[in-house]
Amino acid sequence: MPHSVIEKPMAGSTAAYDVEALRGDFPILNREVHGKPLVYLDNAATSQTPQQVIEVFSDYYSRYNANIHRGLHTLADEATAAFETTRHRVKAFLNAEDARQIIFTRGTTEAINLVAQSWGRSSLGAGDEVLISMLEHHSNIVPWQLLAAERGVTIKVIPVDARGSLDMQAYRELLNERTKLVAVNHVSNALGTINPVKEMAALAHQHGALILVDGAQATPHQQVDVQEIDADFYAFSGHKVYGPTGVGVLYGKQALLEAMPPWQGGGEMISTVSFDVGTTFADIPHKFEAGTPAIAEVVALGRALEWMEGVGVDAISAWETVLLDHATQAVNQIDGLRILGTAPHKAGVLSFVVEGAHAQDIGLLIDQLGVAIRTGHHCAQPLLHHFGVEATCRASFAAYNTLDEVDIFVAALNRVIGMVR
User: Fold this and answer.
1) Of 130, 173, 256, 363, whose CA is between 20 and 30 Å from 54?
2) Secondary structure class of 26 (helix, strand, coil)
3) Does residue 393 have an active-site annotation?
4) What whole-number distance in Å separates Cα of residue 166 and Cα of residue 199?
5) Alpha helices (H) along 41-107
6) pTM for this predicted structure
7) 162-172: per-residue pLDDT in tens?
Protein backbone atom coordinates (compact mmCIF):
# COMPACT_ATOMS: atom_id res chain seq x y z
CA MET A 1 0.00 0.00 0.00
CA PRO A 2 1.51 3.38 -0.97
CA HIS A 3 2.40 5.73 1.86
CA SER A 4 3.24 8.81 -0.20
CA VAL A 5 1.23 11.24 1.89
CA ILE A 6 1.36 11.52 5.65
CA GLU A 7 -2.23 11.69 6.81
CA LYS A 8 -1.49 13.54 10.03
CA PRO A 9 -0.01 17.02 10.37
CA MET A 10 3.73 17.34 10.72
CA ALA A 11 5.31 19.17 13.64
CA GLY A 12 5.55 22.82 12.76
CA SER A 13 2.91 22.50 10.05
CA THR A 14 -0.86 22.85 10.03
CA ALA A 15 -1.38 20.75 6.90
CA ALA A 16 -0.55 17.23 5.74
CA TYR A 17 2.90 16.82 4.28
CA ASP A 18 2.19 15.96 0.64
CA VAL A 19 5.49 14.53 -0.48
CA GLU A 20 4.21 13.62 -3.95
CA ALA A 21 3.28 17.23 -4.67
CA LEU A 22 6.65 18.36 -3.34
CA ARG A 23 8.48 15.85 -5.58
CA GLY A 24 7.03 17.65 -8.58
CA ASP A 25 9.57 20.41 -7.95
CA PHE A 26 12.48 18.04 -8.67
CA PRO A 27 12.81 17.07 -12.35
CA ILE A 28 15.68 14.66 -11.71
CA LEU A 29 13.40 12.41 -9.68
CA ASN A 30 11.56 11.51 -12.89
CA ARG A 31 14.56 9.79 -14.47
CA GLU A 32 15.38 6.11 -14.57
CA VAL A 33 18.70 4.42 -13.74
CA HIS A 34 19.41 1.05 -15.38
CA GLY A 35 15.77 0.89 -16.41
CA LYS A 36 14.51 1.41 -12.88
CA PRO A 37 12.92 4.53 -11.35
CA LEU A 38 15.57 6.48 -9.48
CA VAL A 39 15.51 6.13 -5.70
CA TYR A 40 17.97 8.76 -4.52
CA LEU A 41 19.22 8.16 -0.97
CA ASP A 42 22.58 9.94 -1.12
CA ASN A 43 21.37 13.23 0.25
CA ALA A 44 24.06 13.59 2.93
CA ALA A 45 26.56 13.91 0.08
CA THR A 46 24.44 16.21 -2.10
CA SER A 47 20.73 16.93 -2.09
CA GLN A 48 18.80 17.34 -5.33
CA THR A 49 17.73 20.73 -6.59
CA PRO A 50 14.18 22.00 -7.19
CA GLN A 51 13.19 23.56 -10.49
CA GLN A 52 12.80 26.96 -8.82
CA VAL A 53 16.52 26.92 -8.02
CA ILE A 54 17.58 25.56 -11.40
CA GLU A 55 15.74 28.44 -13.09
CA VAL A 56 17.88 30.99 -11.26
CA PHE A 57 20.84 30.18 -13.50
CA SER A 58 18.94 30.74 -16.73
CA ASP A 59 17.43 33.92 -15.34
CA TYR A 60 20.77 35.30 -14.17
CA TYR A 61 22.75 34.55 -17.31
CA SER A 62 19.99 35.64 -19.71
CA ARG A 63 18.88 38.80 -17.89
CA TYR A 64 21.43 40.36 -15.52
CA ASN A 65 24.81 38.67 -15.82
CA ALA A 66 27.28 41.24 -14.50
CA ASN A 67 29.97 41.63 -11.87
CA ILE A 68 28.80 42.93 -8.53
CA HIS A 69 29.37 45.83 -6.12
CA ARG A 70 31.45 48.24 -8.18
CA GLY A 71 29.47 48.67 -11.37
CA LEU A 72 27.26 51.70 -12.00
CA HIS A 73 25.14 50.22 -14.78
CA THR A 74 21.74 48.59 -14.42
CA LEU A 75 22.86 44.98 -14.80
CA ALA A 76 25.51 45.40 -12.11
CA ASP A 77 22.97 46.98 -9.79
CA GLU A 78 20.53 44.11 -10.34
CA ALA A 79 23.19 41.44 -9.83
CA THR A 80 24.42 43.15 -6.67
CA ALA A 81 20.90 43.43 -5.30
CA ALA A 82 20.19 39.73 -5.95
CA PHE A 83 23.52 38.71 -4.39
CA GLU A 84 23.02 40.81 -1.26
CA THR A 85 19.42 39.68 -0.94
CA THR A 86 20.76 36.18 -0.37
CA ARG A 87 23.07 37.49 2.34
CA HIS A 88 20.05 38.86 4.19
CA ARG A 89 18.13 35.63 3.61
CA VAL A 90 21.00 33.62 5.12
CA LYS A 91 21.05 36.04 8.07
CA ALA A 92 17.39 35.25 8.70
CA PHE A 93 17.87 31.51 8.05
CA LEU A 94 20.55 31.31 10.78
CA ASN A 95 19.03 34.07 12.94
CA ALA A 96 22.28 36.03 12.84
CA GLU A 97 22.29 39.51 14.31
CA ASP A 98 23.67 41.29 11.27
CA ALA A 99 24.03 40.47 7.56
CA ARG A 100 27.68 41.56 7.79
CA GLN A 101 28.32 38.41 9.82
CA ILE A 102 27.58 36.29 6.73
CA ILE A 103 30.62 35.44 4.58
CA PHE A 104 30.15 33.60 1.30
CA THR A 105 32.62 30.79 0.63
CA ARG A 106 32.85 27.82 -1.73
CA GLY A 107 31.41 25.57 0.95
CA THR A 108 31.84 24.33 4.50
CA THR A 109 35.37 23.13 3.78
CA GLU A 110 36.54 26.57 2.67
CA ALA A 111 34.72 28.20 5.58
CA ILE A 112 36.59 26.07 8.12
CA ASN A 113 39.88 26.66 6.33
CA LEU A 114 39.18 30.40 6.43
CA VAL A 115 38.84 30.28 10.21
CA ALA A 116 41.94 28.10 10.57
CA GLN A 117 44.09 30.28 8.35
CA SER A 118 42.82 33.68 9.47
CA TRP A 119 41.79 33.37 13.10
CA GLY A 120 43.95 30.32 13.81
CA ARG A 121 47.25 31.59 12.43
CA SER A 122 46.83 34.94 14.15
CA SER A 123 45.55 33.62 17.48
CA LEU A 124 47.09 30.21 18.18
CA GLY A 125 50.59 29.25 19.21
CA ALA A 126 52.67 26.56 20.88
CA GLY A 127 50.91 25.05 23.88
CA ASP A 128 47.43 26.08 22.80
CA GLU A 129 44.86 23.32 22.38
CA VAL A 130 42.10 22.73 19.83
CA LEU A 131 39.42 20.17 20.68
CA ILE A 132 37.77 18.27 17.86
CA SER A 133 35.55 15.21 18.09
CA MET A 134 35.86 11.64 16.86
CA LEU A 135 32.78 12.37 14.73
CA GLU A 136 34.40 14.96 12.50
CA HIS A 137 34.48 15.06 8.72
CA HIS A 138 38.01 15.38 7.34
CA SER A 139 37.30 19.02 6.54
CA ASN A 140 37.15 19.71 10.28
CA ILE A 141 40.26 17.63 11.03
CA VAL A 142 42.89 18.31 8.37
CA PRO A 143 42.89 22.15 8.57
CA TRP A 144 43.65 21.91 12.30
CA GLN A 145 46.34 19.29 11.72
CA LEU A 146 48.02 21.57 9.19
CA LEU A 147 47.83 24.46 11.63
CA ALA A 148 49.12 22.31 14.47
CA ALA A 149 52.17 21.29 12.44
CA GLU A 150 52.90 24.93 11.60
CA ARG A 151 52.15 26.59 14.95
CA GLY A 152 52.84 23.91 17.54
CA VAL A 153 49.18 23.63 18.52
CA THR A 154 47.97 20.47 20.28
CA ILE A 155 44.86 18.71 18.97
CA LYS A 156 42.79 16.70 21.42
CA VAL A 157 39.92 14.41 20.45
CA ILE A 158 36.55 14.12 22.20
CA PRO A 159 35.65 10.38 22.22
CA VAL A 160 32.32 8.77 21.38
CA ASP A 161 30.44 5.97 23.08
CA ALA A 162 29.28 2.71 21.53
CA ARG A 163 26.11 4.35 20.15
CA GLY A 164 28.01 7.15 18.43
CA SER A 165 27.17 9.90 20.93
CA LEU A 166 29.85 12.24 22.18
CA ASP A 167 31.24 11.45 25.62
CA MET A 168 30.26 14.70 27.29
CA GLN A 169 32.02 13.84 30.54
CA ALA A 170 35.26 13.37 28.63
CA TYR A 171 34.61 16.69 26.88
CA ARG A 172 34.29 18.47 30.22
CA GLU A 173 37.53 16.90 31.40
CA LEU A 174 39.41 17.89 28.23
CA LEU A 175 38.49 21.56 28.56
CA ASN A 176 41.11 23.64 30.38
CA GLU A 177 42.81 27.03 30.31
CA ARG A 178 44.90 26.00 27.28
CA THR A 179 41.78 25.22 25.20
CA LYS A 180 41.36 27.99 22.64
CA LEU A 181 38.88 26.45 20.22
CA VAL A 182 36.33 23.64 20.08
CA ALA A 183 35.63 22.56 16.49
CA VAL A 184 32.72 20.15 16.26
CA ASN A 185 30.02 19.16 13.82
CA HIS A 186 26.39 19.82 14.63
CA VAL A 187 25.32 16.55 12.96
CA SER A 188 27.63 13.69 12.01
CA ASN A 189 27.63 13.01 8.28
CA ALA A 190 28.70 9.39 8.88
CA LEU A 191 26.31 8.43 11.69
CA GLY A 192 23.60 11.11 11.85
CA THR A 193 24.33 11.86 15.53
CA ILE A 194 23.01 15.28 16.59
CA ASN A 195 25.50 16.87 18.96
CA PRO A 196 24.48 19.11 21.91
CA VAL A 197 26.28 22.12 20.46
CA LYS A 198 24.49 24.68 22.64
CA GLU A 199 25.70 22.91 25.79
CA MET A 200 29.15 22.48 24.27
CA ALA A 201 29.35 26.17 23.44
CA ALA A 202 28.43 27.17 27.00
CA LEU A 203 31.10 24.86 28.44
CA ALA A 204 33.73 26.12 25.99
CA HIS A 205 32.95 29.74 26.83
CA GLN A 206 33.28 29.01 30.55
CA HIS A 207 36.91 28.15 29.83
CA GLY A 208 37.47 31.18 27.60
CA ALA A 209 37.47 29.08 24.41
CA LEU A 210 35.64 29.71 21.14
CA ILE A 211 33.47 27.20 19.32
CA LEU A 212 33.24 26.54 15.58
CA VAL A 213 30.28 24.44 14.47
CA ASP A 214 30.29 22.54 11.18
CA GLY A 215 26.62 22.78 10.24
CA ALA A 216 26.78 21.11 6.82
CA GLN A 217 24.58 18.22 7.94
CA ALA A 218 22.40 20.17 10.37
CA THR A 219 21.02 22.94 8.15
CA PRO A 220 19.18 20.52 5.80
CA HIS A 221 17.44 18.78 8.69
CA GLN A 222 16.58 21.27 11.42
CA GLN A 223 16.15 24.88 12.41
CA VAL A 224 19.47 26.51 13.29
CA ASP A 225 19.73 29.57 15.52
CA VAL A 226 23.33 30.70 15.87
CA GLN A 227 22.42 33.17 18.61
CA GLU A 228 20.67 30.51 20.68
CA ILE A 229 23.61 28.15 20.21
CA ASP A 230 25.98 31.04 20.92
CA ALA A 231 28.28 29.79 18.18
CA ASP A 232 31.36 31.88 17.50
CA PHE A 233 31.59 30.43 13.99
CA TYR A 234 29.03 28.36 12.05
CA ALA A 235 29.48 26.96 8.53
CA PHE A 236 27.28 25.22 5.97
CA SER A 237 27.17 24.31 2.27
CA GLY A 238 24.65 25.20 -0.41
CA HIS A 239 24.51 21.78 -2.05
CA LYS A 240 23.26 20.14 1.15
CA VAL A 241 20.24 22.49 1.40
CA TYR A 242 18.74 21.91 -2.08
CA GLY A 243 21.02 24.54 -3.62
CA PRO A 244 23.99 24.49 -6.00
CA THR A 245 27.51 23.27 -5.48
CA GLY A 246 30.40 25.72 -5.17
CA VAL A 247 28.84 28.00 -2.57
CA GLY A 248 28.67 27.98 1.21
CA VAL A 249 28.51 30.23 4.22
CA LEU A 250 30.63 31.14 7.20
CA TYR A 251 28.86 32.93 10.04
CA GLY A 252 31.06 34.61 12.61
CA LYS A 253 30.52 36.89 15.54
CA GLN A 254 31.12 40.43 14.42
CA ALA A 255 33.94 41.32 16.82
CA LEU A 256 35.85 38.19 15.83
CA LEU A 257 35.49 38.80 12.11
CA GLU A 258 36.52 42.42 12.46
CA ALA A 259 39.68 41.46 14.36
CA MET A 260 40.69 38.66 11.98
CA PRO A 261 43.16 39.39 9.16
CA PRO A 262 42.20 38.65 5.54
CA TRP A 263 42.89 35.16 4.28
CA GLN A 264 43.00 35.78 0.53
CA GLY A 265 44.02 38.97 -1.24
CA GLY A 266 42.65 40.49 -4.42
CA GLY A 267 39.83 42.62 -5.67
CA GLU A 268 36.81 43.56 -3.53
CA MET A 269 38.52 42.85 -0.18
CA ILE A 270 40.53 46.10 -0.22
CA SER A 271 39.87 49.69 0.73
CA THR A 272 43.02 51.17 -0.81
CA VAL A 273 46.09 49.71 -2.50
CA SER A 274 49.39 51.55 -2.80
CA PHE A 275 52.96 50.57 -3.64
CA ASP A 276 54.15 53.29 -1.29
CA VAL A 277 52.13 52.79 1.89
CA GLY A 278 50.66 49.32 1.38
CA THR A 279 47.07 48.14 1.43
CA THR A 280 44.13 48.80 3.69
CA PHE A 281 41.24 46.39 3.81
CA ALA A 282 37.49 46.58 3.35
CA ASP A 283 35.06 46.13 6.20
CA ILE A 284 33.36 42.79 6.80
CA PRO A 285 32.01 40.84 5.05
CA HIS A 286 33.91 41.96 1.95
CA LYS A 287 37.30 41.62 3.66
CA PHE A 288 36.87 37.86 3.31
CA GLU A 289 35.36 37.76 -0.18
CA ALA A 290 38.33 38.36 -2.49
CA GLY A 291 37.72 38.32 -6.22
CA THR A 292 34.58 37.70 -8.23
CA PRO A 293 32.36 35.31 -6.26
CA ALA A 294 30.05 32.60 -7.55
CA ILE A 295 27.28 35.14 -8.16
CA ALA A 296 24.66 32.92 -9.77
CA GLU A 297 25.31 30.22 -7.16
CA VAL A 298 24.82 32.65 -4.30
CA VAL A 299 21.55 33.88 -5.80
CA ALA A 300 20.46 30.27 -6.28
CA LEU A 301 21.33 29.51 -2.65
CA GLY A 302 18.92 32.24 -1.63
CA ARG A 303 16.19 30.63 -3.72
CA ALA A 304 16.94 27.22 -2.18
CA LEU A 305 16.55 28.59 1.33
CA GLU A 306 13.32 30.26 0.25
CA TRP A 307 12.10 26.87 -1.02
CA MET A 308 12.99 25.18 2.28
CA GLU A 309 11.23 27.83 4.29
CA GLY A 310 8.19 27.52 2.04
CA VAL A 311 7.94 23.80 2.79
CA GLY A 312 8.81 24.39 6.45
CA VAL A 313 12.09 23.29 8.00
CA ASP A 314 10.27 21.76 10.97
CA ALA A 315 7.97 19.84 8.61
CA ILE A 316 10.97 18.54 6.65
CA SER A 317 12.64 17.46 9.89
CA ALA A 318 9.55 15.62 11.09
CA TRP A 319 9.08 13.85 7.75
CA GLU A 320 12.71 12.74 7.68
CA THR A 321 12.28 11.31 11.18
CA VAL A 322 9.39 9.21 9.89
CA LEU A 323 11.57 7.98 7.02
CA LEU A 324 14.51 7.20 9.30
CA ASP A 325 12.36 5.33 11.80
CA HIS A 326 10.73 3.29 9.04
CA ALA A 327 14.07 2.42 7.45
CA THR A 328 15.70 1.59 10.78
CA GLN A 329 12.93 -0.81 11.75
CA ALA A 330 13.09 -2.50 8.34
CA VAL A 331 16.85 -3.01 8.08
CA ASN A 332 17.01 -4.24 11.66
CA GLN A 333 15.16 -7.32 10.40
CA ILE A 334 18.04 -8.23 8.05
CA ASP A 335 20.31 -10.94 9.42
CA GLY A 336 23.93 -9.90 9.75
CA LEU A 337 23.26 -6.20 9.27
CA ARG A 338 24.67 -3.83 11.90
CA ILE A 339 23.73 -0.16 12.12
CA LEU A 340 26.56 2.17 13.09
CA GLY A 341 25.23 5.14 14.98
CA THR A 342 22.25 4.53 17.24
CA ALA A 343 22.41 7.75 19.23
CA PRO A 344 19.10 8.80 20.80
CA HIS A 345 19.16 12.04 18.80
CA LYS A 346 19.74 11.46 15.09
CA ALA A 347 19.14 13.17 11.77
CA GLY A 348 18.14 11.31 8.60
CA VAL A 349 21.26 9.16 8.14
CA LEU A 350 21.35 5.36 8.24
CA SER A 351 24.89 3.92 8.16
CA PHE A 352 25.40 0.16 8.25
CA VAL A 353 27.63 -2.81 7.51
CA VAL A 354 26.60 -6.31 6.46
CA GLU A 355 28.45 -9.39 7.67
CA GLY A 356 30.12 -11.19 4.78
CA ALA A 357 29.46 -8.42 2.25
CA HIS A 358 31.70 -5.54 1.19
CA ALA A 359 30.11 -2.12 1.22
CA GLN A 360 31.39 -1.30 -2.27
CA ASP A 361 29.80 -4.45 -3.71
CA ILE A 362 26.48 -3.55 -2.12
CA GLY A 363 26.67 0.01 -3.46
CA LEU A 364 27.47 -1.10 -7.02
CA LEU A 365 24.81 -3.79 -7.16
CA ILE A 366 22.04 -1.78 -5.54
CA ASP A 367 22.68 0.95 -8.13
CA GLN A 368 21.76 -1.60 -10.80
CA LEU A 369 18.34 -1.68 -9.17
CA GLY A 370 17.98 2.10 -9.38
CA VAL A 371 18.88 2.87 -5.76
CA ALA A 372 21.59 5.45 -5.06
CA ILE A 373 23.33 5.17 -1.69
CA ARG A 374 26.84 6.17 -0.58
CA THR A 375 29.55 3.68 0.33
CA GLY A 376 33.06 4.23 1.69
CA HIS A 377 34.57 6.03 4.64
CA HIS A 378 32.46 9.20 4.16
CA CYS A 379 35.51 11.42 4.83
CA ALA A 380 35.40 10.19 8.42
CA GLN A 381 38.19 7.61 8.53
CA PRO A 382 39.12 8.05 12.22
CA LEU A 383 35.51 7.46 13.23
CA LEU A 384 35.08 4.34 11.12
CA HIS A 385 38.41 2.94 12.32
CA HIS A 386 37.19 3.53 15.88
CA PHE A 387 34.25 1.23 15.11
CA GLY A 388 36.55 -1.32 13.50
CA VAL A 389 35.43 -0.92 9.88
CA GLU A 390 36.92 0.54 6.72
CA ALA A 391 33.64 1.44 5.00
CA THR A 392 29.91 1.52 5.52
CA CYS A 393 26.83 1.78 3.36
CA ARG A 394 24.92 4.98 4.03
CA ALA A 395 21.35 5.80 3.09
CA SER A 396 20.39 9.39 3.82
CA PHE A 397 17.02 11.06 3.51
CA ALA A 398 15.65 14.37 2.29
CA ALA A 399 12.36 16.21 2.02
CA TYR A 400 11.34 14.49 -1.24
CA ASN A 401 11.95 10.85 -0.25
CA THR A 402 8.96 8.61 0.34
CA LEU A 403 8.13 5.62 2.49
CA ASP A 404 7.62 3.66 -0.72
CA GLU A 405 11.21 4.49 -1.68
CA VAL A 406 12.38 3.20 1.69
CA ASP A 407 10.56 -0.06 1.00
CA ILE A 408 12.13 -0.29 -2.47
CA PHE A 409 15.56 0.32 -0.92
CA VAL A 410 15.08 -2.40 1.71
CA ALA A 411 13.83 -4.90 -0.87
CA ALA A 412 16.77 -4.09 -3.14
CA LEU A 413 19.17 -4.39 -0.22
CA ASN A 414 17.82 -7.83 0.68
CA ARG A 415 18.18 -8.94 -2.95
CA VAL A 416 21.74 -7.64 -3.20
CA ILE A 417 22.82 -9.21 0.10
CA GLY A 418 21.55 -12.54 -1.19
CA MET A 419 23.76 -12.11 -4.26
CA VAL A 420 27.02 -11.18 -2.51
CA ARG A 421 27.01 -13.52 0.48
Assistant:
1) 363
2) coil
3) no
4) 12
5) 51-63, 74-94
6) 0.95
7) 999 999 999 99
